[in-house]
Design a protein that fits this description.
The protein has 12 helices and 13 strands. It is an alpha/beta fold. Strand 11, helix 10 and strand 12 form a beta-alpha-beta unit. The radius of gyration is 21 Å and the shape is globular. Bound molecules: nicotinamide-adenine-dinucleotide (NAD).
Length: 333
């Protein structure tokens, strides 16, 4: 089967090719660097399936173009599917599959890396030491042991993080509409979580209900000086509200692996260009903000697992006309 792979980076190509070579019947993978959009959909010409990542856009107009070109299957090489219009896909007869779980630890461990780096100001300490500045002022942190950490969402990633934080001796609060009693956490309302947590970490999916879940109202309910970490999806946090929270001191430390307008920035080397996003530029001015460019998933274990499941979805569609891990409006209903 011919597959148009959008947003390809060298690492995607390496892991997908390795998984494809290992198959009894390899697919014809056509690697494309551009992101999928209305302008680039034509590049999928001749393909029965497209393979997409987090910032590829598969809204109704794009899916209509793909359907007209004969595309019948979208294999997402990520867990989130907020960038796909599932209702339009269903109407057009395009099936959607994703990689529901690859390595929740990859994201959970990166989240812990951000928490510890922010807490102990590792980003600032590293820059200082390289400049010959060995002073400690401004680098004061706190013990994780005994601190309260609030997890919004305790699915695969939230659960993996809860287990790590339990090992640190943290008190872990959690909020999830589907609480899992087996986890080492205390389930509370979102209001209680916001009010009590020294650290808040976001691990729910981006849906219409969670868009700007963390807005000015939610920030106002947080503990003064709270650490907020988002490694889920950018638009769950209203960035402008976070900036106001940083300016007032309500948010003491902010860690972001995702950003609501990341589509035009992340995964590209823009170091020679003038940054056009003034909101993002403001975020970069804060000494207490640490940003990584959507790299929480980026471990060799996760990439190998993503490639294997993605090829498994493509195999299943080529063989049975349906992916292994499909998402649809009908399934979510
Ligand atoms: P999952 O589906 O296993 O878990 C999501 C959990 O969120 C579920 O338990 C669900 O009940 C809960 N939830 C839904 N709505 C909620 C709400 N309003 N409040 C609180 N909880 C809510 O997903 P996962 O594998 O744990 O991944 C979580 C998210 O992490 C994904 O949706 C994706 O957006 C993001 N992600 C980011 C990266 C990265 O590299 N930064 C990588 C993978 C996934």
């Amino acid at each position: 089967m011919q597959v148009a792979v959008f947003s390809t980076k060298p690492y995607d190509r390496a892991f997908l090719q390795a998984a494809n070579r290992a198959r009894a019947t390899p697919h014809r993978l056509v690697f494309l660097e551009p992101r999928l959009s209305a302008e680039t959909a034509l590049l999928a010409d001749g393909a029965a399936a497209v393979c997409l990542f987090v910032n590829d856009l598969a809204d109704a107009p794009v899916l209509e173009r793909l359907a007209a070109q004969g595309v019948r299957f979208v294999a997402l090489r990520c867990a989130g599917f907020n960038n796909v219009d599932l209702a339009a896909a269903s109407r057009l007869g395009i099936r959607i599959a994703r990689v529901p779980a690859y390595s929740p630890e990859s994201v959970a461990e990166h989240t812990v890396a951000m928490m510890l780096a922010l807490n102990r100001r590792i980003h600032r300490a590293h820059a200082r030491v390289r400049e010959g500045n060995f002073a400690l002022d401004g680098l004061l942190g706190f013990d994780m042991k005994g601190r309260t950490v609030g997890l919004i969402g305790t699915g695969r990633i939230g659960a993996a993080l809860a287990r790590i934080l339990a090992g640190f001796g943290c008190r872990v609060l959690a909020h999830d509409p589907r609480p899992d009693a087996a986890l080492p956490v205390e389930f509370v309302t979102l209001e209680e979580l916001l009010a009590q947590s020294h650290i808040i970490s976001i691990h729910c999916p981006l849906t219409p209900a969670t868009r700007h879940l963390i807005d000015a109202r939610a920030v106002a309910r947080m503990r003064p000086g709270v650490m907020l970490v988002n490694t889920s999806r950018g638009a769950i946090v209203d960035t402008r509200a976070a900036i106001e929270g940083l300016k007032s001191g309500r948010i003491g430390l902010l860690g972001l692996d995702v950003y609501e307008e990341e589509g035009d920035l992340f995964f590209e080397d823009l170091s020679g260009q003038v940054l056009q996003d003034d909101v993002f530029a403001r975020l970069l001015t804060f000494p207490n903000v640490l940003i990584t460019a959507h790299q929480a998933f980026f471990t060799e274990d996760a990439l190998a697992a993503i490639a294997e499941t993605t090829l498994g979805n493509l195999d299943a569609f080529a063989r049975d006309g349906r992916g292994m891990h499909e998402v649809s409006v009908e399934k979510l209903a």
